[in-house]
């Protein structure tokens, strides 16, 4: 293979992309699980938001894996391997809606960090297609984290807090 990127650099890039793929897959699965199992007063909003996010993640998995293949390496494709590579913890229970949002904020931020680290590897190797893919992924994950974080800030997914009494 002679695409202007050394074998050594392609191996480094595909390793970084494999971590990106694993984080994306674990976040996809967690988001889909939460879509199925969310309950409470924010059900409809969260159900739709989670569906939008897991659908976008599902489509991204193919882009990441195909970039690994285009660089001449095989993409990891087993759940066991994803768990080994991912920085995101699995969720095997059904947390409250508030905790779902909190976990998804952390997951979106984790994928953004993984993309940023992979970007540095791709950029150092002068791999513009991978850098472009990673730039797009960072933008999406940072925006998703912000949209989820807002739900935590306004207390929409948490129990109502009693109003503060003013001074007379």
Automatic annotation (TrEMBL):
Domain Ferritin/DPS positions: 15-154
GO terms for MF: ferric iron binding; oxidoreductase activity, acting on metal ions
InterPro entries according to UniProt: DPS_DNA-bd, DPS_DNA-bd_CS, Ferritin-like, Ferritin-like_SF, Ferritin_DPS_dom
PANTHER family on file: DNA PROTECTION DURING STARVATION PROTEIN, GENERAL STRESS PROTEIN 20U
Family: Belongs to the Dps family.
Protein name (Swiss-Prot/TrEMBL): DNA starvation/stationary phase protection protein
Organism annotation: Parasulfuritortus cantonensis
């Amino acid at each position: 293979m002679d695409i202007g990127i050394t074998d050594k650099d392609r191996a480094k890039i595909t390793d970084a992309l494999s971590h990106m793929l694993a984080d994306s897959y674990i976040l996809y699965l967690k988001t889909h699980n939460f879509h199925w199992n969310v309950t409470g007063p924010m059900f409809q909003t969260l159900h739709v938001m989670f569906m939008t996010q897991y659908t976008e993640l599902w489509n991204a998995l193919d882009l990441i894996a195909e970039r690994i293949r285009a660089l001449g390496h095989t993409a990891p494709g087993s759940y066991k391997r994803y768990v080994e590579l991912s920085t995101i913890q699995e969720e095997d229970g059904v947390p409250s809606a508030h905790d779902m949002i909190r976990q998804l904020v952390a997951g979106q931020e984790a994928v953004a960090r993984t993309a940023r680290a992979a970007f540095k590897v791709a950029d150092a190797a002068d791999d513009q297609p991978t850098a472009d893919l990673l730039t797009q992924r960072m933008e999406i994950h940072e925006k998703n984290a912000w949209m989820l974080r807002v739900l935590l800030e306004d207390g929409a997914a948490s129990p109502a807090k009693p109003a503060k009494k003013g001074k007379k």
